[in-house]
């Protein structure tokens, strides 16, 4: 049986892993390869590297670190941030990433998703979605979330975008529920359940993990395929080995060694 | 002792990852689309992250279809590279290399069965094979694919996602892994080492 995936997300800037509080005040927390291997050894099933500088700064992309990671890592990893065309995606994939994740560029030009799927196959194409609950009760999409000052509210309904992204060729959806993000009160189960009902490709929950219980809820109650988290892993609040023991005890299939 | 390993450069995006995995085993492989280089290798690996039709078209353009069909050295297909070993793939209705009998078909979605099959799944023993030496029954491997090969006579490890499919196949000097050994931790490394070693002799 296919296991559920635990996916630490590492923010990368200038070839180093950084940590910020509410997208600001980034501090250096270590070398990319060193941290990647530490998470691999701890039992992570997959890693996401989010190049936080790339998109908001609109700068040219330097993905030399992707090759360093790929040469030493023997679990899959995805690169997000700053990928807005097939040429860049090809460079990242050829450097050794297994998947690329697109968010704002796919909202600006949805055909990008199809171009990537045609060039590399749907299994390489992840669509990341930042979503927020609005006053009228609808979940809607935000773009340019890498920089709070630049973030834009779009009229697009999150659930419509999930359907459209799959039609265009997304092989996986990462749904980041912004209301939950960073506050550690649990994943947004209601929103994830609504997404799950419309999502025939793998769905990854993002935003809100604070305790092991939150992971259990996301898998058990929203039937997601993977759960992504950053601060709880980086800060040591949740250890992956203990988390997997707990998930297994709750009858949720996870990879052990 | 294996000295020359050639990775067939058919445009597959995981070429670099496979090369690094071999480097971790202490072996420097060369990527090539040159027929003579491929024919004279000790081991040949056909990686593939793309679609069956794309890779077959590229192999035809490079004049490598017959080279692979008549190869003397052991051949390992990875992911799409394994699917191409069979006669036909339903992905874009593509005629393949025909080194192994059978047809590659689309995995069937069902409630709780998402396509692509993406993530870690268990390898189920089908029959003993030197290629599997040291790979524990039930070991985890990383899969990402939407099509699968049948559990036929050449299948040595199977997997299940809405139905059984072949995870590792071997017949004589022709072998394939549906999962990504370069991303499957210790089990993947062991399979690659066996392929390079005496497992295929």
TrEMBL record, chain A:
Any GO BP annotation: L-histidine biosynthetic process
Top enzyme category: lyase
Gene coding for it: hisF
Single GO MF descriptor: lyase activity
Protein known as: Imidazole glycerol phosphate synthase subunit HisF
Pathway: Amino-acid biosynthesis; L-histidine biosynthesis; L-histidine from 5-phospho-alpha-D-ribose 1-diphosphate: step 5/9
Localization: Cytoplasm
Function field: IGPS catalyzes the conversion of PRFAR and glutamine to IGP, AICAR and glutamate. The HisF subunit catalyzes the cyclization activity that produces IGP and AICAR from PRFAR using the ammonia provided by the HisH subunit.
EC number(s) stated in the UniProt entry for this protein: 4.3.2.10
Keywords recorded for this protein, A-Z: Amino-acid biosynthesis, Cytoplasm, Histidine biosynthesis, Lyase
Main location: cytoplasm
Reactions accelerated catalytically: 5-[(5-phospho-1-deoxy-D-ribulos-1-ylimino)methylamino]-1-(5-phospho-beta-D-ribosyl)imidazole-4-carboxamide + L-glutamine = D-erythro-1-(imidazol-4-yl)glycerol 3-phosphate + 5-amino-1-(5-phospho-beta-D-ribosyl)imidazole-4-carboxamide + L-glutamate + H(+)
Family, as annotated: Belongs to the HisA/HisF family.
Subunit structure, interactors included: Heterodimer of HisH and HisF.
List of catalytic residues: 11, 130
């Amino acid at each position: 049986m296919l296991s559920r995936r635990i996916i630490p997300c590492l923010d990368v800037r200038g070839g180093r892993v950084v940590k910020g509080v509410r997208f600001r005040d980034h501090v250096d927390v270590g070398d990319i390869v060193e941290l990647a291997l530490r998470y691999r050894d701890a039992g992570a099933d997959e890693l996401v590297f989010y190049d936080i500088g790339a998109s908001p700064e609109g700068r040219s992309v330097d993905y030399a670190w992707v090759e360093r990671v790929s040469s030493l890592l023997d679990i899959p990893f995805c690169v997000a941030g700053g990928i807005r065309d097939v040429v860049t995606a090809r460079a990242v994939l050829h450097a050794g990433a297994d998947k690329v994740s697109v968010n704002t560029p796919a909202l600006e030009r949805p055909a990008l998703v199809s171009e990537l799927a045609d060039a590399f196959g749907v299994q390489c194409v992840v669509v990341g979605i930042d979503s927020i609950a609005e006053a009228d009760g609808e979940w809607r999409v935000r773009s340019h979330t890498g920089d709070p000052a630049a973030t834009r509210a779009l009229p697009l309904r999150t659930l419509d975008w999930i359907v459209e992204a799959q039609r265009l060729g997304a092989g996986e959806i990462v749904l980041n529920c912004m209301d939950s993000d960073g506050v550690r009160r649990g994943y947004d189960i209601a929103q994830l359940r609504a997404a799950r009902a419309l999502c025939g490709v793998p769905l990854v929950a993002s935003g809100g993990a604070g305790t092991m219980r939150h992971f259990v809820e996301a898998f058990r109650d929203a039937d997601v395929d993977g759960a992504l988290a950053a601060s709880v892993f980086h800060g040591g609040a949740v250890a992956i080995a203990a988390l997997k023991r707990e998930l297994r005890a709750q009858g949720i299939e996870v990879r052990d060694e | 002792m294996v000295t020359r390993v050639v990775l067939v450069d058919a445009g597959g995006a995981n070429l670099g990852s496979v090369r690094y995995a071999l480097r971790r085993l202490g072996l420097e492989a060369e990527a090539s689309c040159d027929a003579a280089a491929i024919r004279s290798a000790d081991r040949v690996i056909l990686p593939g992250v793309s679609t069956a039709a794309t890779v077959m078209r590229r192999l035809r353009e490079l004049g490598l279809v017959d080279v692979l069909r008549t190869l003397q050295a052991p051949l390992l297909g990875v992911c799409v590279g394994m699917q191409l070993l069979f006669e036909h793939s339903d992905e874009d209705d593509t005629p393949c290399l025909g080194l192994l009998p059978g047809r590659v078909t689309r995995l069937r979605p069902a409630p709780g069965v998402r396509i692509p099959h993406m993530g870690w799944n268990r390898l189920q023993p089908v029959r003993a094979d030197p290629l599997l030496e040291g790979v524990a029954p039930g070991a985890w491997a990383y899969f990402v694919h939407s099509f699968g090969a049948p559990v036929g006579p050449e299948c040595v490890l199977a997997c299940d996602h809405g139905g059984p499919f072949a995870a590792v196949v071997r017949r004589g000097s022709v072998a394939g892994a549906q999962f990504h050994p370069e991303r499957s931790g210790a089990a993947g490394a062991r399979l690659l080492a066996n392929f390079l070693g005496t497992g295929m002799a």
